[in-house]
Amino acid sequence: MQRAITGYHRDDAGDLVAELACGHGFHMRHRPPMTSRPWTLTDEGRAAMVGTAVACLRCERFEVPAGFMAYKRTPTFTEASVPAGLRAAHTTKAGVWAKIHVEAGCLRYCVESPALAAQTLTPETVGVVIAERPHRVELVGPVRFYVEFYRREEAPHTR
Ligand SMILES: [Zn+2]
Asked: How far, in Å, from the CA of 138 to the mean position of ligand 1?
């Protein structure tokens, strides 16, 4: 899944980590000849790469980014009260992830990740909503569920 570089920080070992719009980090190592990223060596090179999209495998693995915390949740919905907006394709805002928690019954969760994938959610199976990816839910019977939203705990690193 292609995600734009929004900034950088260094990990504990001093290695450069690009921060992606999804909230994930991407190690940008320069270890020629195996991995050649000479642009990482200068301020100008790094600045020029901001905005460039790279493939984020962590998004494709449905990993909520490290350091993200739940900050709000919806009321509990039932098959009778689920908002129409959740049943049509929609997305979260940039940098916002979510989890769909089924309290009782089951719910079908469909997401473009990037191919359309569907999963049946139950009280034992939590659905992970990837930031900015189109998704929707489908009713398959009686259900009680809510959606919990996640974002970065502290202010994001600046460029
Ligand atoms: Zn990602």
From this structure: 25
pTM of the model: 0.88
Q: Which domains does the chain have, with CATH numbers?
A: 2-60 (2.40.50), 68-152 (2.60.120.10)
| 146 CA → ligand 1 middle, Å | 24
Ion ligand 1, residues whose Cβ is below 5 A away: 22, 24, 56, 58-59
DSSP 8-state assignment for residue 39: G
Q: Which tens digit of pLDDT belongs to each residue from 12-35?
A: 999 999 999 999 999 999 999 999
Extract the residue ranges of the chain whose pLDDT is less than 50: 159
**What's the CA-to-centroid distance between 78 and ligand 1, angstroms?**
31
Cα-to-centroid distance, 30 and ligand 1 (Å): 21
> Angle at CA 36, nearest 5°, toward 30 and 39?
70
Backbone angles phi, psi at 137, to 5 degrees: -115, 155
Tokens 């940008």 found at? 28
